[in-house]
From TrEMBL:
Lineage of origin: Bacteria, Pseudomonadati, Bacteroidota, Saprospiria, Saprospirales
Catalyses which reaction(s): (2S,6S)-2,6-diaminopimelate = meso-2,6-diaminopimelate
UniProt keyword annotation of Isomerase present: yes
Keywords: Amino-acid biosynthesis, Cytoplasm, Isomerase, Lysine biosynthesis
Pathway(s) per entry: Amino-acid biosynthesis; L-lysine biosynthesis via DAP pathway; DL-2,6-diaminopimelate from LL-2,6-diaminopimelate: step 1/1
Family recorded in the similarity comment: Belongs to the diaminopimelate epimerase family.
GO molecular function: diaminopimelate epimerase activity
Entry superkingdom: Bacteria
Active site positions: 75, 199
GO CC annotation: cytosol
Site feature: Could be important to modulate the pK values of the two catalytic cysteine residues: 140, 189
Entry protein name: Diaminopimelate epimerase
Length: 261
């Protein structure tokens, strides 16, 4: 069976997207097939795979899998890319509301091609001696460094992700360096088990941690990642953070068909 697919990227975070509104090509249990499709040598190659599906009461449903083939928690850049994809298909005009594993999300496609995605509210934030731990749709460990250019993100991130605390469930690990205007972020992602060029939920977590650590009064954070530039804006209150929007480009790379492997 041939599977039509679309390859998208958002600041270097890349995804295979399959339209399943009218025909089901993959099941949630097809872990080996999905892992193979994401393989950069034997498949299409991607950090993750998404299914665009019908969902009553919403414009669509986003079902996300990490490159290991396992259905995973929310992916921010994935949410922006699948929004751009649905917009390309004519599912909506400028604004949409879709369902993901962490609930409902609003999104906007701007004229300049940037996609703005509303993230879940964040309330429970753990502050350690040198880190913040919070969930922005996915769990994130955030720590600040002043040597990001020289840091081995894979080794440093893997050490935290496979520490005693996180070994079983895993966590994403973000290293953040402050800049004159905003922050630079590097992320080790669980499920991918490597550094990625960008992580949407990760930069969201980093922006919130930056506000808590340095930026009281700041409600919009420009962010640089290895794959490009993003922006996170939010409202900070006494009981947490709301109106959190992850903003950045989401671009079609190529389309094709591939045999169900």
């Amino acid at each position: 069976m041939q599977i039509p697919f679309f390859k998208y990227q958002g600041t270097g975070n890349d995804f295979v997207i399959i339209d399943q509104r009218d025909r089901q090509y993959l099941q949630r249990t097809d872990q080996e097939i999905i892992e193979r499709l994401c393989d950069r040598r034997f498949g299409i190659g991607a950090d993750g795979l998404m299914l665009l599906q019908q969902k009553e009461g919403y414009d669509f449903e986003m079902v996300y899998f990490n490159s290991d083939g396992r259905e995973s928690s929310m992916c921010g850049n994935g949410g922006r890319c699948i929004t751009a994809f649905a917009h390309r298909l004519g599912v909506f005009s400028d604004t949409c509301r879709f369902w993901a594993i962490d609930g409902a999300h609003d999104a906007v496609v701007r004229e300049d091609g940037w996609v703005e995605l509303k993230m879940i509210d964040v309330q429970d934030i753990e502050q350690g001696s040198d880190f913040y731990y919070l969930n922005t749709g996915s769990p994130h460990y955030v720590t600040f460094r002043d040597d990001l250019a020289d840091l081995d993100v894979f080794q440093a991130g893997r050490a935290i992700r496979y520490s005693d605390r996180f070994r079983a469930e895993g966590t994403n690990v973000n290293f953040v360096q402050t800049q004159e205007n905003g922050i630079t972020v590097a992320t080790y992602e669980r499920g991918v088990e490597d550094e990625t060029l960008s992580c949407g939920t990760g930069v969201t977590a980093a922006a919130i941690a930056y506000h808590l650590q340095y930026g009281k009064g700041v409600d919009k954070v420009p962010i640089k990642v290895k794959g490009g530039e993003l922006e996170v804006r939010f409202q900070a209150g006494t009981d947490g953070f709301s109106e959190i929007w992850l903003c950045g480009p989401a671009e079609l790379v190529f389309t094709g068909e591939i045999d169900r492997l």
